[in-house]
């Protein structure tokens, strides 16, 4: 009987990473394993999960449909990490915090849907750096972001195109006006 309760240790801790908007629409999704084999089953799960978690704004961890779900919401975004029901919640929360902090650094602390859509390529890279086939690869946001490569603002002025320079100048003016 004791053998039923002992499980082999596994590095495969994450079943899914999701970023949904304030209406529950998918922005980023990455599923690992075969728990949700079709896009239809994934979308249905996401809708049920969002419906449940939008009613619990102050929670961080729930047991949902046999899965441990850790999540964080910010303005118009919901960040989720899904693991097995027996998974260590602290590991999942650590990975979720790494994802959120990485996105926050990529977006220069302006974590909202519009910015996420603009830097979607970098966010997908961050998700790939965070987790590989369900195995957590990184838990330090600074280290993760440093491996993504330089942002356009960090590229020397002489190596940028004219439109990139103009865009950078617009952003700097916007932020300088907000600070005043």
Please, could you describe this protein's structure?
The chain has helices spanning 39-53, 89-106, 113-118, 120-130, 141-146, 162-179; strands spanning 16-21, 26-31, 61-64, 67-74, 77-84, 131-132, 135-136. The chain is of the alpha+beta class and 180 residues long. Strands 2-1-5-4-3 form a five-stranded antiparallel β-sheet, sandwiched between helices. Strands 6-7 form a two-stranded antiparallel ribbon. A hairpin with a 2-residue loop joins strand 6 (131-132) and strand 7.
What topology emerges from the helices and strands here?
Blueprint lengths: L15 E6 L4 E6 L7 H15 L7 E4 L2 E8 L2 E8 L4 H18 L6 H6 L1 H11 E2 L2 E2 L4 H6 L15 H18 L1
Antiparallel strand pairs: 1-2, 1-5, 3-4, 4-5, 6-7
Helix pairs in contact: 2-4
Q: Summarize this, please?
A:
By secondary structure, this protein is α+β, with helices and mostly antiparallel strands. The chain has helices at about 40-55, 90-105, 115-120, 120-130, 140-145, 160-180, and strands spanning about 15-20, 25-30, 60-65, 65-75, 75-85, 130, 135.
Task: Give descriptors for this structure.
6 helices; 5-stranded antiparallel β-sheet; alpha+beta; 180 residues; two-stranded antiparallel ribbon; 7 strands
The residue fraction in helices comes out at: 40-55%
* Low confidence ranges: none
State mean pLDDT (0 to 100 scale).
Answer: 84
Global geometry = globular
Specify the biggest β-sheet: 5 strands, antiparallel
How far is it from the N-terminal to the C-terminal residue, by CA?
68 Å
Q: What class would the helix/strand composition place it in? A: alpha+beta
What string gives the helices and strands in order? EEHEEEHHHEEHH
Beta-strand residue percentage: 15-25%
Rg for CA atoms? 18 Å
Count every beta strand, where a strand is a DSSP E run of 2 or more residues. 7
Strand order of the largest sheet: 2-1-5-4-3
> How many H/I helices?
6
